Amino acid sequence: MKSSSSAYNLPLFHDPLDNGAEEQETPKPKRTSPLNDLDLNRWREYDDITTDSLWLIPERDRSGAHLADYHGNFVPQIPYQAMRRFTKRGDLILDAFLGSGTSLIECRRLGRHGIGIELKPELAQQADDRIASQSNPYNVKTIVLTGDSSNTVSTPRVITHAVEEIGKEQVQLVFLHPPYHSIIKFSDQPEDLSNCPSVESFIQKFGQVVDVVTPFLETGRFLVLVIGDMYAASEWIPLGFHCMQEVIGRGFSLKSIVVKDMQGNRAKRNLENIWRYRALAGGFYIFKHEYVMFFRKGIRNGRTAI
Ligand SMILES: C[S@@+](CC[C@H](N)C(=O)[O-])C[C@H]1O[C@@H](n2cnc3c(N)ncnc32)[C@H](O)[C@@H]1O
């Protein structure tokens, strides 16, 4: 994947289709997809878009309103990649674990509308302010909701209102970047997935979030799950694969599992030697990766062409 310096520092959405079309002597008809704005006749030009399943991202994109100050945030390159490939300009994105607002900042830059849900009120307010500080060249709407994404009674109602306010009937992309169970404790609230008393209850609550958000997703569109595994009682807990099964079990097809590096993990920073000693002594490997999983709603066996 390209580093932020070349691909992400552009002032506006870099859409190769916006320029150069007249330069072709005999322009071919645009070969588009219902999922994105790319022209497959010009596939060689999209060098900002990765198609590999290993994402080594040397540095985080810190341009615009993106700051790296929220422990547990994801790099903006993740929503950038997902939105470029699986949404069109004017589409609506729903992020059920908004955190510091990374995905909605990226929405403004790429011309997608966005709804984000965050449990912690002060963080939701901070995210809202941060998103508002990002320029909005495509005049998109972004709505930050404070609430519990796993609440199957009240949250669907609130999302419905937000979707209507944006003038849509459904959303075209869902992001799920939940806590990796108890790895980072985000709050003291019992609704917080990082406070689930066991792995089983975490997976069950994660499934509730999937139940809440996926009815809003248009059939044929993508859900992106960003998750890492954990270690507990001397065992590797494959949280990512447990959560993957929750999504597949609800009628989604698995399209890709991307392995992304976790360089510079704050929890491990300055503790490299201690962790290396523990790993050698304890017979395990140190986490250096997380997953970005791509699922498609209601489409199995590739029956619908992209
Ligand atoms: C891994 S972080 C997401 C970070 C985000 N992608 C970003 O870039 O800032 C998970 C977030 O989910 C929130 N959260 C935990 N349980 C939640 C729930 N039940 N409903 C909504 N948000 C929740 C936490 O407060 C935390 O901010």
TrEMBL record:
The keyword Amino-acid biosynthesis does not apply. Keywords: Methyltransferase, Transferase. Its EC number is 2.1.1.-. Residues 1-36 are annotated as: Disordered. It comes from the Bacteria. InterPro entries: DNA_methylase_N4/N6, RM_Methyltransferase, SAM-dependent_MTases_sf. One of its GO terms (molecular function) is methyltransferase activity. GO terms for biological process: methylation. Residues 44-127, 171-298 form the DNA methylase N-4/N-6 domain. Belongs to the N(4)/N(6)-methyltransferase family. This is Methyltransferase. It comes from Chloracidobacterium validum.
